[in-house]
């Protein structure tokens, strides 16, 4: 794939993702999060690496990790976006500190997971997709028990009742 094709494809993918997450956040009354969601993807470091490793069927971060055993784009992204659980952990010596994530960022994370599942799974997407993705990796999430329950509640509600009802539930979730 030539550079122009990768540039166009990556820009289209991240812009589509941004717009769809923004719409999902708006349905949950997360207006600020919707507007500012994933703006770091347009930063030079994330955007250039995204174009370089763009394939069109998965995140360029996965390809960058395969190629380099690390993703500089991911390190930047998770450090600039509070809806990622990795933003909220730190180490001091051998001690891992897991900070509780504010509810508004958990809600944004759910919107992000639903939309990412739609974009990458395309016609194979179902209302259970984001829930299944979360459950397949949830043992790796270093988040508080409270945050795990919140994430589970919201994603399982979408799985059971659909996206429209799920976003209404998320809006009112306390």
In short:
By secondary structure, the protein is mostly helical. About 65% of the residues lie in helices and about 5% in strands.
Describe this structure in words.
The chain is mainly alpha-helical. It is built from 9 helices and 2 strands, in the order αααααββαααα. Strands 1-2 form a two-stranded antiparallel ribbon. α1 (about 5-25) crosses α6 (about 105-120), α6 crosses α7 (about 130-135) and α7 (about 130-135) runs antiparallel to α8 (about 145-160). It is globular. The N and C termini lie far apart (about 45 Å).
Main sheet record: 2 strands, antiparallel
The total count of helices amounts to: 9
Which strand-content bin applies to the residues?
A: under 5%
- The topology string of helices and strands comes to HHHHHEEHHHH
Gyration radius from CA atoms, angstroms: 16 Å
Overall mean confidence score, pLDDT: 95
Number of domain units:
1
Query: What structural class should be given to the helix and strand makeup?
Result: mainly alpha
Shape: globular
- Helical proportion? 55-70%
Unreliable segments of 5+ consecutive residues: none
- The total of beta strands comes to 2
Distance between the termini: 47 Å
Q: What strand order characterises the main sheet?
A: 1-2
């Amino acid at each position: 794939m030539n550079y122009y094709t990768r540039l166009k494809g990556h820009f289209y993918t991240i812009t589509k993702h941004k717009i769809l997450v923004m719409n999902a956040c708006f349905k949950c009354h997360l207006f600020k999060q919707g507007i500012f969601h994933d703006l770091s993807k347009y930063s030079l470091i994330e955007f250039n690496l995204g174009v370089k490793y763009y394939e069109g069927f998965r995140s360029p971060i996965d390809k960058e990790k395969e190629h380099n055993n690390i993703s500089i784009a991911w390190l930047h992204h998770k450090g600039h976006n509070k809806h990622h659980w990795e933003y909220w952990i730190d180490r001091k010596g051998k001690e891992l500190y897991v900070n509780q994530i504010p509810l508004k960022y958990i809600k944004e994370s759910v919107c992000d997971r639903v939309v990412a599942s739609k974009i990458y799974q395309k016609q194979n997407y179902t209302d259970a997709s984001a829930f299944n993705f979360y459950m397949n990796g949830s043992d790796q999430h270093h988040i508080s028990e409270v945050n795990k329950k919140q994430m589970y509640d919201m994603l399982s509600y979408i799985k059971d009742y659909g996206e429209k009802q799920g976003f209404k539930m998320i809006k009112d979730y306390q």
